Amino acid sequence: MKIKKLIVTTGVCLSINTIGLAQKIAHLSLDSLVSQMPETKTAKEIAQNYLKDLEKTMTSMEQELQAKYNDYLANEATMSDLVKRTKQEELQTLQKRIEDFRTQAQQDYQARYQLLINPILDKAKKAIEMVAKENGYKYVLDASAGFILYSEPSDDILPQVKKKLDSMPIANLPGANNNTNTNQDNKGNSKPSQTPTNNKPSNKGK
Taking the domains of the chain in order of start, what are their residue ranges? Predict the structure, then answer.
């Protein structure tokens, strides 16, 4: 009988501990949170303008290559072997420059976007930490990725974190006008950025 009572008592204690632990865990979607922050819209606009500059340079280089190639085809029959080889080398060199530029442009764009998004992520995580401490949560899980966002001092605390963000100063983004009103509408109704063609720097970096 004593053993049965001990087992029952132990089971009750474990149940209480499990409930207590569950109450200290919260979750939210970090992707959803960040996408609704006004700074994210600004970051996307800056990144898109940077991408357009890269695409403009790429287009100019491709047009130069096409013009030289057309000239080569038009005059190939009358060229000496030396001139022909020289023209071919020029075309190959320009083609290589374009390929190198495309690779570097993709890397530069990704680095620029990361530079812009980092302060936004820092602000979001700071707000998550503040809400977690204020409400006694020991762990906050990212519902969109399954990562633990906060491991120290399950409810969805996205509304609370969004409210906390409204009381925080706007995140400073490189190249942005950081005097933006923090109370602006952040529902994100703008259209998504256009994906560049295969011959243009990719804007995968999000």
Answer: 31-166
Between CA 65 and CA 61 the distance in angstroms is 6
Query: 199: burial class by Cβ within 10 Å (0-12, 13-18, 19+)?
Result: exposed
pLDDT digits (tens, 9 = 90+) for 137-168: 888 888 887 666 665 546 778 888 888 898 88
Partners of residue 150 on adjacent β-strands: 140
How far apart are alpha carbons 55 and 73 in whole angstroms?
Answer: 27
Residue 194 is classified by DSSP as P
SS3 content of the chain, % helix, strand, coil (to 5): 65, 5, 30
CB 139 within 8 A of CB 24: yes
Its pTM stands at: 0.61
Extended strands (E) in the chain = 25-28, 139-142, 148-150, 155-156
Alpha-carbon span 180 to 184, nearest angstrom = 8
* 6-23 pLDDT tens trace: 334 444 444 434 444 445
Q: How far apart are the first and last CA of the chain?
A: 62
